[in-house]
Amino acid sequence: MIANQPSIFFTEDHGKPRSAWALEFKNISKSFDGNQVLRDINLAIEWGEILSLVGNSGTGKSILVKMLIGLVQPTSGTISVGGMETQGLSEMEWMPIRKKVSMVFQANALFDSMTVYENIAYPLRQQFDLPESEIKDRVAQVLEWVLLPGIQHQFPHELSGGMRKRVGVARGIVTEPQVLLYDEPTAGLDPVSTTAVDDMIKRFQRERGVTSIVITHDLKSAMNVGDRVAFLNDGVVWACAPPDALLALSDPVVQSFFEGYRMAMELLQ
Ligand SMILES: Nc1ncnc2c1ncn2[C@@H]1O[C@H](COP(=O)(O)OP(=O)(O)O)[C@@H](O)[C@H]1O
Ligand SMILES: [Mg+2]
To answer: Which residues, at least 6 apart from 32, have a Cβ–Cβ distance to it below 8 Å?
Structure first.
């Protein structure tokens, strides 16, 4: 088990034993205006695990993950984060969870009018009351983690797409979350930047015991970073297994979804 496990979720008044799962979806369904997107999702993620979440566009990957920080409410079913059931929580009650669970968004908009420093300091200022010297240290540290040291004074428009993504990730991790949710962190990136982001996701797991869900269209990334890969299809978790086991499944839907990836890998061998 990972040393760096969340404690905030398990305060004295909670009193229950530590949950076996970092994140758990139980019988989750979601409809919009009678149109059912998710049907009875059951999925649990271990402490310190990286789960890749793949599936065609519009299958509900983003809304599923947004439920973990209370941005989307399930139509039915329950979600627990760090062993804490989240249904019916008020905005106030979500706040301690959002300090521990950070989401790196698909359209990872940085504030154009702010420097990299102010962009990254923003969530620290929102969530904590820290002296400027500590903010400065933390911003410098996360920029080193994403391999962009010393760019504090630059503005987003001065950076490449790959650098902006990594600044977005730096902003996501500066609060030292124990759970990181990435929504297409490598979309639109060149292969070198993609590898840098993938390596970073794995480094947070290895060095800091961070639990992650990574939504991605890049099956190579999904297979590379995920301890397990969950394939969302037709509103359900169609398959969820470690990469090799998933590729070995004979199910025709799985085979067809991963066919392009498999062929690319065979070409490399
Ligand atoms: N606020 C909303 N209102 C209505 N429909 C929505 C809303 N958010 C998402 N949807 C629908 O839910 C489906 C899943 O969306 P999403 O989770 O963004 O898919 P994915 O991330 O897998 O591409 C889409 O068909 C989308 O149109
Ligand atoms: Mg999405």
So the answer is: none
Residue 85 and residue 257: Cα distance in Å, rounded?
33
Smallest CA-to-CA distance from 63 within 55, 71, 53 is with 71
Q: C-alpha angle 111/116/121, rounded to 5°?
A: 85
CA separation, residue 80 to residues 50, 102, 200, 209 (Å): 17, 15, 26, 19
**Whether 215 contacts 61, CB under 8 Å:** yes
Instruction: Count other Cβ atoms within 10 Å, centred on residue 147.
Output: 12
On the question of pLDDT at 7 being above 80, the answer is no
Looking at the structure of the chain, the number of domains it has is 1
Ligand nearest to the CA of 37: 1
30 within 8 A of 72, measured Cβ to Cβ:
yes
CATH number at residue 177: 3.40.50.300
- Does residue 11 fall inside a structural domain? no
CA-nearest residue, atom 16 of ligand 1: 60
Which mutation among 31, 35, 36, 37 tests ligand 1's pocket best, with the greatest number of atoms within 8 A of CB?
37
Any idea which residue has 């200022």 for tokens? 125
- Domain membership of residue 73 as a residue range: 21-268
pLDDT tens-digit map of 228-268: 999 999 999 999 999 999 999 999 999 999 998 888 888 77
For residue 33, give the ligand 1 atom closest to its CA. 4
